Amino acid sequence: MAKPKKRRKIIILLIIGVVLVALTLVAVFKKRAPVVAVQTEKVARHSLTNIVVANGQIQPVLKVTISPEVNGEIIELPVKEGQQVNKGDLLVKINPDVYVAAVNQAKAGYEAALATKMSAQANLEKAQADYKRNATLFEVKLLSESDFVGFKAARDVAKAQLDSADDQVNVAKAQVDNAEEQLAKTTITSPLTGTITDLNSEVGERVLGMTYNLGTSIMTVSDLNRIEARVDVGEMDVVGIIPGQKAQLEVDAFKDRKFTGIVTAVANSALGSGGTLGSSSGNQSQQAIQFEIRIRVNEKELAFRPGMSVTAEIETEYRTNALTVPLASVTTRPVKPELKADPVKEDGTNSTVATKSGTNAVTAVANAKEGAKPADVVFVVQGDHVKAMPVKIGFCDDNYWEITDGLTNGQEIVSGGYRAVGHDLQDGSKIKKGAAEAEAEKK
Predict the structure, then answer these.
(1) Is residue 244 reached through a cis peptide bond, with omega within 30 degrees of 0 on the bond before it?
(2) What is the pTM assigned to this prediction?
(3) Residues 280-320: tens digit of each pLDDT
(4) Mean pLDDT of the chain
(5) How far apart are CA 45 and CA 51, in angstroms?
(6) What sign for the dihedral angle of Cα 353, 358, 360, 366?
(7) Which of 117, 321, 345, 385 is spaced 20 to 30 Å from 249 by Cα?
(8) DSSP 213-254
(9) Backbone phi, then psi, for 91, in 5-degree steps?
(10) DSSP symbols for 396-413
């Protein structure tokens, strides 16, 4: 009976030993931090250009939409789309018959008003003469006062009639001028030297004038010698754009060429209804707020056509000899306050302070318990491991971030790979320099 009990104890001890060994191995493997393959680069100085990319269309700087000011039928249209025209050339002729008749009628009324004025002037001269003659008789008591008052009233009435006739002449003359102006508007000439870029009407078509409405758009005349790009920029980027800044332009129709330009105008208000909040079936959607930027194209290209698509890269800010790191080097990590001890006081105590925030130890511990705040960091190489260094970043271009605080020129930092910087590395992680594992990069 003793042998089975002894054997059972041995088995139990063996099981306990295996479990302890297994736990020990697990603890050992957990303590062994994985080595992360990284690429490194030195902190260096570069010139940076901040670029805002925007899309839009090619448009002429000056274009005029031709719309009639009078109603009528087009009887002459001696131009076609794409034709070059000079300032003053005939563009449209509208049937003038109705307006010629209106001019003749206004002139007849003007002549009648002149005749009425001449008659009123003759009546005034006669009434003035009668008044003077009878005034002399009234002074020598040869005319009664009532008769004298009658002659005076007749003179005043004749004078008033002449004034009224003079006003009627002015009204009739204005009617003649208006009728002649309406007649002149039946002939439309080009207001500038340019190209017919849009033709919407034909001979025989009736058009509406702009007196009480927008009128008919007959054609558009554009000056294609001066071209600009009109692009839309979001509200976050427009604050950094001012007239005079340089821009690079890519026109879809000219894939192998790049054009240069200068910002000439920045809109003060958003385009259209951008920025308004609308709701549909209880769901709110916010439209992007866009501002129009105009960029004068330096090069002259006769093949430009209004409406061509263009992409503009506007240089909003430039920095020379800036301390920089590659874009991939900067990531975000939670950063806790670093603590250091004050010198020992006379009573043998000291107070621990946080080097970053300036708070005392109690506050720092409380902050640590609440959780560290995320910050921009760069991993600085220190032997076979890295240190997460908080940094302050400025602006960036296509390749580099500007570092305004936290690093010095020449420090070796981790520049890749993407998964290592963005996920795997932590403060104190061990590293090995070399190509990142392909499988890890895919993940």
Answers:
(1) no
(2) 0.63
(3) 444 444 568 899 999 999 998 888 889 999 999 999 888 88
(4) 83
(5) 19
(6) negative
(7) 321
(8) S-----EEEE-TTSEEEEEEEEHHHHTT--TT-EEEEEETT-
(9) -110, -45
(10) E-SSEEEEEES--TT-EE
